Amino acid sequence: QVQLVESGGGLVQAGGSLRLSCAASGRTFSSYAMGWFRQAPGKEREFVAAISYGGGRTYYADSVKGRFTISRDNAKNTVYLQMNSLKPEDTAVYYCAVKGDYSRATMSNGALYDYWGQGTQVTVSS
Q: Based on CB atoms within 10 Å of each CB, which residue in 23, 36, 65, 124 is the most buried?
């Protein structure tokens, strides 16, 4: 069992920045890959970014590449999502999730993730 708690969401103007955190507990954090997803009102959940066990491999959705950075601190059992140059279309509830293995081909498939956090709201005003 893994518990995930996201934080760091809020209201920001377009062009601003936020850093989301996801604190994990319950299992050895460094033994699994992590991902961030988001879901806007009326839309399906979409993949944002993923990171491998040790943090050496990352993968981003095209819509956030160059603006968002995923990282992790295994000593703190925490994964981060640094979001810069935010746009109104980034407005969504952001979720972190656990995946038992890292494979670039499958990291964007939310159905393959085992545990999810409760989400944190990010709102970007124009």
A: 36
Characterise 29 by phi-psi region: left (phi > 0), alpha (psi -120 to 50), beta (else). alpha
Q: What is the pLDDT of residues 23-61, one digit of tens each?
A: 999 768 788 999 999 999 999 999 999 999 999 999 999
H-helix or E-strand spanning residue 4: strand 3-7
Residue found by looking up tokens 């319950």 in the block: 26
Q: In this structure, how many other beta carbons lie within 10 angstroms of the beta carbon of residue 64?
A: 23
Largest CA distance in the chain: 41
84 and 17 in contact (C-beta within 8 Å)? yes
Give the separation between CA 39 and CA 22, rounded to whole angstroms.
16
CA dihedral for 7, 37, 72, 82, sign (positive or negative): negative
Mean pLDDT (the chain) is 95
